[in-house]
């Protein structure tokens, strides 16, 4: 007998299924862009983050190049779908495109994407792009077709740092803390390895959870930390650079194949340019946010020493072995072989 969904999840799924039926009835499957269409794109962060700005650039390029025959309607900050339901909404066809963090793919049946969540796997964004712009990254995107999804490209938000109400520079500093995490088995195990309790919460609820004491700390690139105003509810930011946060833009195959071939090419070209733009500004945006935090003095900023980073890294390395057991050692080998020498 199939497991029963909790009432809230059941209601959300029923609503999503109704939305799919209405959308399908209102729009023919093929050739619709020839007469004009709207691409509905949902994401969960602010418009002035690197992700938000890259997707706004995508909208501008598509609408300019089609004289607004193709419109892009963007729903930022989880206004339409949040962390808990954006992937389900895409799978059901209730939304056309999403730009989730790479952590979102593990819970829906693609644990190989959790490679990107491994702590201390990458030394730089250049390292990451050896994967996302190479054969391993394309193989990961191709695998999404198992669920009628189409991966259109990757882009960066940079490296994550730890925040709390005291410095987090040693494993001992995490003992007993409740740390907000994305829905990622790897990130949850990372926090447990450090002695903390991982608490899975949507990104949109994180600031409120920090403010009310539901959680004690979290991890974020500086741009996300700053644009969400977390400096008002966290006193300390530790520049650990322990993990990478990136995104993929994904479409439902039915939506994508419903576009004429020429429009698919136009949209893909616009997206490629927009993602390159997003990658170009990600580091600068994080640097700008960090400089603003230094100027305001609203948060104490800490940088671990080389010895502290080594202890931090040693504490979380068992997480790598666990992921290798779950997805197969060849995945990790392929990533490490693709990376330049340290």
UniProtKB/TrEMBL annotation:
<dbReference type="Pfam" id="PF03480">
    <property type="entry name" value="DctP"/>
</dbReference>
<dbReference type="InterPro" id="IPR004682">
    <property type="entry name" value="TRAP_DctP"/>
</dbReference>
<dbReference type="InterPro" id="IPR018389">
    <property type="entry name" value="DctP_fam"/>
</dbReference>
<comment type="similarity">
    <text>Belongs to the bacterial solute-binding protein 7 family.</text>
</comment>
<dbReference type="InterPro" id="IPR038404">
    <property type="entry name" value="TRAP_DctP_sf"/>
</dbReference>
<keyword id="KW-0732">Signal</keyword>
<protein>
    <submittedName>
        <fullName>C4-dicarboxylate-binding protein DctP</fullName>
    </submittedName>
</protein>
<keyword id="KW-0813">Transport</keyword>
<dbReference type="InterPro" id="IPR006311">
    <property type="entry name" value="TAT_signal"/>
</dbReference>
């Amino acid at each position: 007998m199939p497991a029963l969904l909790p009432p809230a999840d059941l209601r959300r799924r029923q609503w999503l299924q109704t939305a799919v039926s209405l959308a399908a009835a209102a729009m023919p499957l093929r050739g619709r862009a020839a007469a004009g269409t709207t691409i509905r794109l949902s994401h969960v962060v602010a418009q002035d983050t690197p992700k938000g700005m890259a997707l706004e650039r995508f909208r501008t390029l598509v609408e300019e190049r089609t004289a607004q025959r193709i419109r892009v309607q963007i729903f930022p900050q989880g206004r339409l779908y949040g962390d808990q339901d954006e992937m389900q909404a895409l799978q059901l066809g209730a939304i056309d495109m999403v730009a989730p963090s790479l952590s979102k793919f593990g819970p829906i049946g693609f644990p190989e994407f959790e490679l990107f969540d491994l702590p201390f796997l990458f030394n730089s964004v250049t390292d990451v792009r050896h994967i996302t712009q190479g054969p391993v990254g394309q193989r990961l995107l191709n695998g999404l077709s198992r669920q009628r999804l189409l991966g259109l490209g990757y882009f960066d938000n940079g490296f994550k740092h730890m925040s709390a109400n005291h410095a987090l520079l040693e494993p001992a500093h995490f003992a007993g803390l409740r740390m907000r995490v994305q829905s990622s088995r790897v990130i949850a195990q990372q926090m447990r390895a450090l002695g903390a309790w991982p608490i899975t919460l949507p990104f949109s609820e994180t600031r409120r959870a920090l403010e009310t004491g539901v959680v004690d700390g979290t991890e974020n690139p500086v741009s996300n930390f700053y644009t969400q105003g977390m400096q008002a509810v966290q006193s300390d930011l530790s520049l650990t650079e322990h993990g990478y946060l990136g995104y993929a833009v994904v479409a439902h195959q039915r939506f994508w194949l419903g576009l004429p071939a020429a429009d698919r090419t136009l949209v893909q070209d616009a997206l490629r340019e927009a993602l390159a733009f997003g990658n170009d500004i990600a580091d600068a945006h994080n640097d700008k946010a960090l400089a603003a935090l230094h100027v305001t003095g609203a948060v104490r900023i800490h940088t671990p020493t080389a010895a502290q980073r080594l202890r931090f890294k040693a504490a979380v390395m068992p997480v790598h072995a666990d992921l290798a057991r779950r997805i197969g050692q060849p995945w990790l080998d392929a990533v490490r072989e693709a990376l330049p020498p340290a």
